[in-house]
Amino acid sequence: MKILRGFDESKENAVLITKKDEKIFCKSEKLQMETTHDLGDVLEVLASLGYEFAFLDGFNEVDLDPEVESLASLIKKVKRENAEYCGAIGIFVGFVRKFSDGKEVVRLEYEAYEPVFSEKVREIENILKSYPGVEGVKIFHKKGKINVGEDIVYVVIMGRHRKDVWKPLSESMEIIKRELPVWKKEIYVDGEQWVHDKLEQ
Question: Per the UniProt entry, what are the Gene Ontology biological process annotations, in alphabetical order (predicted)?
């Protein structure tokens, strides 16, 4: 789901999100609701419902990815790719652990090289789709600040049979770590460190 400013009536399958005081209001042709939940949580729910565009109005500058997906929204999207020939979906979810090498983690921060990030995600999806029996692949990697227990990355692979998804799923994160231009900083209770720097020590 793409995150945009203002509102464009020409966009189909879109939802308008406005903020007044401490409440968030969501409105579309099929939906009208108000909530006090965090904006990030609201966006993930809307992505799960299948919205393609979310227009923000009345918010101060917020540090959000220009695109938001949930596990449910990725499953819906991958099923659009030859699902009639398939009978299995394999899922990998990576999330933030509380302890790393004996240090207590507060959060992770991911930075990406934006000019090629989306293109590289599509390339990795195509690599995984080249495995025998695989008909659909969707990957979503979050950026910015991610707290302990929150999800980082989703990999959804659809295959003709369950045996077709195990190998690409097990190898997916090694390909992502090798090919995707994204860098991780670990923030601890007593300091911080880029993971690249830690590996060199």
Answer: Mo-molybdopterin cofactor biosynthetic process
